[in-house]
Amino acid sequence: MPLAPGLQAAIVDLDGTLVDTLGDFTVALNATLDELSLRRLTAADIEPMVGKGSEHLIRSALSAVDAPQRLYDAAWAAYQRHYDEINGRHSDVYPGVEEGLEVLRRSGLRLACVTNKPTRFAADLLQRKGLAKAFDAVFGGDAFERKKPDPLPFVRTCEALGAAPSRTLVVGDSSNDAAAARAAGCPVVLVTYGYNHGEPVGSVDADGFVDSLAQIGRLL
Ligand SMILES: O=C(O)COP(=O)(O)O
Ligand SMILES: [Mg+2]
């Protein structure tokens, strides 16, 4: 049974959906904490902080190590420098991703990647992982006035792709993606292997779940 008939486009999330980037976040954030002489965090500490953009990640990390928020500007500058240096080196494309993107493209859908990661980091990562060619557009957390879970990034992306929201499938890994999709009027499918802010993803309100992007064809 197709999820939504007459799909024209798909919007795919990046971190936790296409690429397992927890290693990159951990290395760049710990290099930042080292530089500021703060205590390090583990990947398990960092995972629930991912998904709401780099600003949120840095603010959450500073609170987790009991550092004052006045260090934010220095931390943000250091973090960008370190992230740029290591982007993609400690992260892996999830199994089934290339196949799933190919299925979406072969179904005639226009594809955009919409992430809360800054656009530059996202575009570089997709390029380095050989995924950039699948996408007609890439929009990061700095591309619009508000980030997911606000519906604005999806509404604007639908406009850019020339697709109606009701005919644009969102594929993500978190309640952020699902809430933004619902508010924009897009059908939404979540992968079960991503981050979801440290919460079980199965309880999120979505139209479907897949264990691998390779299964996406069943829902089209
Ligand atoms: O928080 C981030 O930097 C990115 O998160 P997203 O790719 O899942 O939107
Ligand atoms: Mg995500």
Automatic annotation (TrEMBL):
Reactions it catalyzes: 2-phosphoglycolate + H2O = glycolate + phosphate
Active site: D13
Record EC number: 3.1.3.18
Pathway: Organic acid metabolism; glycolate biosynthesis; glycolate from 2-phosphoglycolate: step 1/1
Swiss-Prot/TrEMBL cofactor(s): Mg(2+)
UniProt entry keywords in alphabetical sequence: Calvin cycle, Carbohydrate metabolism, Hydrolase, Magnesium, Metal-binding
Residue sites binding Mg(2+) per the record: D13, D15, D173
Biological processes per GO annotation: DNA repair; glycolate biosynthetic process; reductive pentose-phosphate cycle
Any Pfam family matching the protein: HAD_2
Source organism, top-level taxon: Bacteria
InterPro entries, A to Z: HAD-like_hydrolase_sf, HAD-like_sf, HAD-SF_hydro_IA, HAD_2, HAD_sf, PGP-like_dom2, PGPase_prok
A Gene Ontology cellular-component term: cytosol
GO-annotated molecular function: metal ion binding; phosphoglycolate phosphatase activity
Entry coiled-coil feature ranges: none
Family, per entry: Belongs to the HAD-like hydrolase superfamily. CbbY/CbbZ/Gph/YieH family.
Function text: Specifically catalyzes the dephosphorylation of 2-phosphoglycolate. Is involved in the dissimilation of the intracellular 2-phosphoglycolate formed during the DNA repair of 3'-phosphoglycolate ends, a major class of DNA lesions induced by oxidative stress.
Self-association and partners: Homotrimer.
The protein's name in its UniProt record: Phosphoglycolate phosphatase
Organism: Ramlibacter henchirensis
